[in-house]
Amino acid sequence: MSEIKPTDPAATNAGEEKDWAAAKAFFDSLKTRKPRPPKPQYAVTIAVSSRTLFNMVAERKIYEEEGVEKYVTFQQEHENEPLMPGVAFPLVKALMTVNSRLRQLYPDSEELFDIVLMTNNHAQVGVRLINSINHYDLTIERFCMTGGKSPIGYLKAYMTNLYLSKDGEKVTEAIEEGIAAATMFASGDVENQLSDTQLKVAFDGDAVLFSDESEIIVKQHGLDTFFEHEKEFENKPLAQGPLKCFLEALGKLQRKFYAKNERMNCPIRTYLVTARSAASSGARVLKTLRSWGLEIDEALFLAGAPKGPLLQMIRPHIFFDDQMSHIEGAKELGTVAAHVPYGIGQKYHKGELIEQPVNDVKDKK
Predict the structure, then answer these.
(1) Taking residues 128-153, what's their average pLDDT?
(2) Domains of the chain, earliest start first
(3) Which GO terms describe its biological process (predicted)?
């Protein structure tokens, strides 16, 4: 029996670099207007599901009511008909706009957004998806079609920085794997209301950018204890939440514009939209971001006021929050909202306990 020798990482990396150099040389020799996809380890990879990129409500109904075979047949029969844009479509267009600006400033840079279509669709449906992407002139070259199986296992292989889906179970699975992810919700036709020159991304704080440690205190002990806790630990950075790494990736690209004296004309703008009050609990948040070496362009402390009206003014391409009550309020006022199913907030809705915490159950036994 032959001995299986361990792989030499240096040799593997050297071989990979050689392969990429050859692929780049071949691509550059071709005459095409299509930009070459960036190298994954340098790119900010956004994986979107087919149902977020395109409106597939009618097709989904066929799948649920008539089964997979009828669904695949329908898609093949209509493969020359472009699918209508979905909730993530304006976001993808904004990502492409940022890439265009980056390529103007850094023609040879690999630090770009790379959009991957990550779907459990069957390969037979791929022609319609490809035709739809080409119809709208979207720069999406990497596909992952898993034929009915969950695509979550491929996210790390694609070096995914953010995964967006309409399937909450898959999103939860991705977060458990340590990947930034959120469930997107439609909010009507908002595409024409969103900026076509600047990508706007809004984040909640606790249980999104930060861990839910402070949120636990609010839920279990009330606001006064929370305020005392935040004051006591003002200089201790909060632990990171599931989307901290995505803000970090956005910051990496923003700094490329700052280096070219383009701060005031940067096509990426980030927002913190938090229910925290500034005077009572805001300092710890800002000091945490500072300790991470991260910037946020605008910080909005609402002290418990509804987020919807401010989001209506910002008009972000996507707003991330861990609590469905905030998602619903944002949707009602036309904001593209994405739920991050993480932390203690999943046990509550509009402040009411919907699932008894495990610790409480144990205490009563």
Answers:
(1) 94
(2) 35-184 (3.40.50), 199-343 (3.40.50.1000)
(3) adenosine metabolic process; nucleotide metabolic process
